[in-house]
Design goal:
The complex is a heterodimer of chains A (308) and B (249).
Chain A: E1 2-6, H1 16-28, E2 31-38, H2 42-48, E3 56-61, H3 70-81, E4 86-90, H4 93-105, E5 110-114, E6 116-117, E7 122-127, E8 132-138, E9 143-147, E10 163-165, E11 175-182, E12 195-199, H5 210-219, E13 222-225, H6 227-231, E14 252-256, H7 262-265, E15 273-278, E16 291-294, H8 297-307
Parallel strand pairs in A: 1-2, 1-4, 2-3, 3-10, 4-9, 5-9, 12-13, 12-14, 14-15, 15-16
Antiparallel strand pairs in A: 6-7, 7-8
Helix pairs in contact in A: 3-4, 5-8
Chain B: E1 2-6, E2 9-11, E3 33-35, H1 37-51, E4 57-64, H2 68-77, E5 82-87, H3 94-108, E6 112-116, H4 127-135, E7 138-149, E8 152-159, E9 162-169, E10 172-176, H5 188-194, E11 199-203, E12 215-221, E13 230-232, H6 235-245
Parallel strand pairs in B: 1-4, 1-6, 4-5, 5-11, 6-10, 7-10
Antiparallel strand pairs in B: 2-3, 7-8, 8-9
Helix pairs in contact in B: 2-5, 3-4
Classes of the chains: A alpha/beta (308), B alpha/beta (249).
Amino acid sequence: MAILIIAEHNNLSLKSETHKVVQAAAAIGGDITLLVAGFNCKAAADEAATVAGVSKVLLADNAVYQHQLAENIAALVTEVGKDFSHILAPATTSGKNFLPRVAAMLDVAQISDVIAIESADTFVRPIYAGNAIATVQSSDRIKVLTVRPAAFRAASDGNSAPIEAVSAAHDAGVSAFIDEELTKSERPELSAARVVISGGRGMQNGENFALLNGIADKLGAAIGASRAAVDAGFVPNDMQVGQTGKIVAPDLYIAVGISGAIQHLAGMKDSKVIVAINKDAEAPIFQIADYGLVADLFSVLPELEQQL
Amino acid sequence: MKILVPVKRVIDYNVKVRVKADQTGVDLANVKMALNPFCEIAVEEAVRLKEAGNASEVVVVSIGTTAVQEQLRTALALGADRALHIETDQHLDSLQVAKLLAKVVAQEQPGLVILGKQAIDSDNNQTGQMLAALTGMGQGTFASKVQLADGKVLVTREIDGGLQTVALTLPAVVSTDLRLNEPRYASLPNIMKAKKKPLDVIAADSFGVTLSSNVTVLKVAAPASRQGGIKVESVAELVDKLKHEAKVI
């Protein structure tokens, strides 16, 4: 078994999702190679070499990979990956973007959003917004998988794997990066946070989301939102938790003013402990919450901040 | 320019699905079916591009049994001009769907293909990317904004952490995210008119694509249900439980 993992990074440092995919790969068993493709990304490769369980890091450092355009990255991964038995990437927007392209170029299926590894060819994944769990077996010669980071622990550090340069420069020439607008945040990343506090339509407006700041600061939490809050323009859409947003599984998830639609639950129902604060005692969120408080969030939030 | 929009018939997003007792799948008998929400957004975007004078024709295509014609008629009522039904009763994975769509692309020669980012039944998020790979086109996935200019399409994409804009040479594949637009409702006169619009049926076998997949579903189970929780009376009680009982803060 030879496993290739495409590392997620921003050219400067490795993202925590990569550690989780390495942990998933360890469950398959075999030799693990990490591919770091980017531009001026030596620092990310150095960090990749420290991840426990990795036997080799491949570094493809070239301007054509700077913004990880799917067309260029897929061509590189297809070339580098053709002799591996498994190719894995995290089920982030980046992994979801280029990996199906790789699978099609290799003429194999892709198994998306894997939450458990049963064996080298049998994998578990949620379907129907997490309302059913499918176990699938693949007889493809190369198994191409995206892995749900929230479902695996992170591999530890302390390794020093060798780094090997890959010179291949693939430029498909059909796409170009124009610009990027990233949301600035001092808080932990939503998908990696130990505690997440999310607001929904019940927050009433964007300014009221400030009520969550103090609590998030005290708990070291990331702030999320339901689709209703995003669609109403309260907060930017990269804060959305749900089937179509981010999937999180923190130790503690606090849902404030969120009714608990199926699509929202798909993104957070694997959290260890769920707290719901809602003034509607009939809200579906209470059916899955470990601790529910039926009360007006505008009186509860300041009190909660004070008591923490 | 012609725009091709692949659409999928799926279980209505409001339906709470039930897993079959024998664990072979979910129960789809007598369940309300609908156009996949992301596909609806794709049809809407294509129709808007046509209304803005950027496209000459919108062709919708769906793969499946005769039942998918219902969703094709819905797309026609929303403003598509013509429909193609690729008929098969086999269950297809994204790769086989992408291969069939690549053949349709070769026949129809669209300037742009717009499809949904994922179907809410299989939650795969693969078909658009695979179609782009098979046709050698550029891909603009998770689009929240699409603009046509000088033989290129500018696609603003929703990525983790914010937005990214890429320029793709036409023809290209775009997959829609939820915020791209708000789909219109089909009016009754348009539903009546849609019945007269052309809908061609083609057998999937006639494309020369191998329809079988190397992935087998061994079982489909219900997710582990959460233990029923408790209601607390006050903030103080909540904080106390989180500290001493759940030990998460």
